[in-house]
TrEMBL record:
Domain named Amidase: residues: 26-457
InterPro entries referenced in this protein's UniProt entry, alphabetically: Amidase (IPR000120), Amidase_CS (IPR020556), Amidase_dom (IPR023631), AS_sf (IPR036928)
Highest taxon of source: Bacteria
Name of the protein described by the UniProt record: Amidase
Native source species: Albidovulum sediminis
Record PANTHER family: GLUTAMYL-TRNA(GLN) AMIDOTRANSFERASE SUBUNIT A, MITOCHONDRIAL (PTHR11895:SF7), TRANSAMIDASE (PTHR11895)
């Protein structure tokens, strides 16, 4: 049965359910069968809650736009009473929640049938998904020797392999867009505070982290973004209000835009030739569609931003571990967290309160610098990653030097030098699967827009998807 439905997006599957051509139970059966068949190779889906999913169908699903469509939650955040979580960590294994998060309430209202979670690295840190709590790395369905990315790597692998048409993710430094690039999917990071964080979190990583989704189509992402947008009660700040919404925006062509083309890192260093080719391929497509494309690179303190980002994330990681140990009444024990998390604790000890506030101030200053670059430009085009998907093991959490893990030569920042910039600035950004290498690996093109211009960016992504469809491309494990 999976072969009949696995190639369709959530919008198409929901239409089949609405026409009674297929039932929600049948789609759930297909998704569970795909887990049985594919997950031994991928290690992407965990904590399957089949009975919760079947009970939701029996009790009547919300009459939302994705009524009856199978769905997965990231095993980090998206707190839900019915879905325990490991949070990517042995320390947090089998965490249960007394309240549903606001983002889960909004996702559930779309009518999806959630049945489990997808793997994430410990603490959501890093561009690969290889947490010890899952017994091994998560692998890329395009090439099992490579990572599907992180931190929403399990979500990317599950959607790319055809287990579900869309899945929840989150993005604090590229964690939706990196898996999208690595897995040949669409990933969109919304403007800061577009989605609710409560009641468990006021803001993630000083406002840099936000929920999101991995999808096969732009229209699925637009639907999910419309359904989940808006601050929850008591939110510390709100994103600029939407206009007609993302779905309305993608139904008509966007205006012709001024696109800045950067085919290097933001500091001018070269990127892998496959990634440079992907940037120029996207530039030609944009020009063919009538957009004005011209080389330009923002002159911003990207290295300073990454140092500040590293300190903020180290402090956030240390805080969550300390709170867990305090709640259970005993200190951290050997083997409960991996070396990167231990390194984050080490780094956090060296960061004073004044240092932390200075790091937040640096992030805010960087956001102003990057936003100023966009005054004459509508879009900045770069690669999503500086290299093709990395081999499994390259970013395993074995390095206890947290600063080196993030900013050392050949480490995270060299591999992913673009995404975190827009978590820092809060601007919307997206990775589009427009290019594949000669070796058959997806290489994402990254588009970023002005703060609050989510609908316009989504419309541009839809125009590119229509001009260069990608849905027909399937990884070897999809068959």
């Amino acid at each position: 049965m999976l072969g009949d439905f696995a190639g369709q997006d959530a919008t198409a599957l929901a239409a089949l359910v609405a026409k009674r051509e297929v039932g929600a139970e049948e789609l759930l059966d297909a998704a569970l069968a795909a887990v049985d068949r594919l997950n031994p190779a991928l290690n992407a889906v965990v904590l399957v809650q089949e009975e919760i999913a079947r009970a939701a169908i029996r009790n009547g699903l919300p009459d939302g736009p994705f009524h009856g469509v199978p769905f997965l939650l990231k095993d980090l955040g998206c707190e839900a009473v019915d879905f325990p979580s490991h949070n990517g960590s042995r320390l947090f294994a089998d965490t249960r929640y007394g309240l549903d998060s606001a983002i889960w309430e909004r996702i559930r209202a779309t009518g999806v049938v959630a049945f489990g979670r997808t793997t994430a690295p410990e603490g959501g840190v890093g561009p690969a998904t290889e947490s010890a709590v899952y017994g091994g790395p998560t692998r890329n369905p395009w090439d099992l020797t490579r990572t599907p990315g992180g931190s929403s790597g399990g979500a990317g692998a599950a959607v790319a392999a055809g287990i579900v048409p869309a899945a929840h993710g989150s993005d604090g430094g590229g964690s939706v867009r990196i898996p999208a690039s690595s897995c040949g999917l669409f990933g969109f990071k919304a403007t800061r505070a577009r989605f609710p964080d409560g009641p468990y979190v006021g803001e993630g990583w000083a406002g840099m982290a936000i929920d999101g989704f991995l999808t096969r189509s732009v229209r699925d992402a637009a639907t999910l973004h419309d359904a989940c947008a808006g601050a929850d009660l008591g939110a510390p700040y709100w994103a600029p209000p939407l206009g007609e919404g993302h779905l309305a925006a993608i139904r008509r062509p966007p205006r012709r835009m001024r696109v800045a083309l950067c085919d290097t890192m933001l500091d001018g260093r070269p990127i892998h030739e496959d990634c440079r080719k992907a940037v120029h391929d996207a530039a030609r497509l944009l020009a063919d569609l009538g957009h004005h494309v011209e080389p330009a690179r923002p002159k911003v303190d990207i290295a300073g931003m990454m140092r500040a980002w590293t300190d903020i994330v180290a402090c956030g990681t240390a805080l969550s571990i300390r709170a867990k140990c305090a709640a259970r009444g005993r200190p951290l024990e050997p083997g409960e967290v991996e070396n990167v998390a231990l390194g984050a604790i080490d780094r956090a000890v060296a960061v004073s309160g004044a240092d932390y506030l200075a790091a937040v101030g640096k992030i805010h200053a960087f956001g102003r610098e990057l936003s100023a670059f966009f005054e004459p430009w509508d879009i900045l085009l770069t690669a999503t990653l500086a290299e093709p998907p990395a081999l499994v093991g390259r970013f395993a959490h074995t390095d206890r030097d947290f600063v080196h893990f993030r900013t050392g030569a050949g480490m995270v920042f060299d591999y992913s030098p673009f995404c975190a910039a827009f978590n820092a600035s809060g601007q919307p950004a997206a990775s589009l699967p427009l290019y594949w290498s000669d070796g058959g690996l997806p290489i994402g093109a990254h588009l970023a827009a002005r703060f609050g211009a989510d609908e316009e960016l989504m419309a541009l992504c839809a125009e590119l998807e229509a001009a260069r469809p990608w849905a027909h491309r399937r990884p070897p494990l999809f068959a």
